[in-house]
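Researcher: Sequence of Sec-independent protein translocase protein TatC follows. Predict its structure.
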Amino acid sequence: MSLGAHLLEFRKRLMLSAAGLLVGMIVAFIVTDPIIAFISEPINRVAEESDQLVALTFNSVTAPFDLRMRMAFSLGLFLSAPIWMWQIWAFIMPGLTRKEIKYTLGFLGAALPLFFAGCYVGTLIVPHIIELMATFTPEGAQNLYTAKEYYDFVFKMMLVIGVAFVLPVFLVALNFAGILSGKAILKGWRVAVLIATTFAALATPAADVVSMLMLAGMLVVLYFAAAGLTLLLDKRRRKNKIAAGLDPDLPAA
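Model: Prediction complete. Tokens:
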């Protein structure tokens, strides 16, 4: 294809992705009420268990609508993911070999469930964080959470934990590319445990040790699972080289 044909194809894929996002935003906008009720549940629990005034507040006339639009955009991205991801895939697929296509599909098939699993773990951790932080409010003070900042906090926590769950997939990808061996990945387990613990400590309140240990434990398990898989892949490559009469210690060309 010529450069002009590539640009036309890119514009077509971009327009289809934008249309899918728009439909996803419309659907998400319709269901914002139950989502707002869901993320507000920790606030309601804190209000019931304390004598303080705890509420979700809107600090401008347009704030309620702005919140729904922000939610519609972020949730619309999730809902329309099959559409815009397929458009990206359809644009780059003609330039990939059959082997690269198989690997890419495998990585996507592993990364997407892990990302959504991480987001789900985020929904379990965030309420504990909110309830714990509310206990530090001085007597006589009030917890009035601005809707925009509260939603950003919940969304970013889910996003960060979701991305953290996907990181082991990148380790496997680096192994496939011949950049990291399984032994090298396993050798760095001390650093990995330290990073997982530090990340969990930063992502959860210092006083919420249980949530921190749960998150750190999940990340460490995923790391060792990735290390174990890369060791098996290295062993398989070694056997294939020996069967082909090649030196198994030489890197792939």
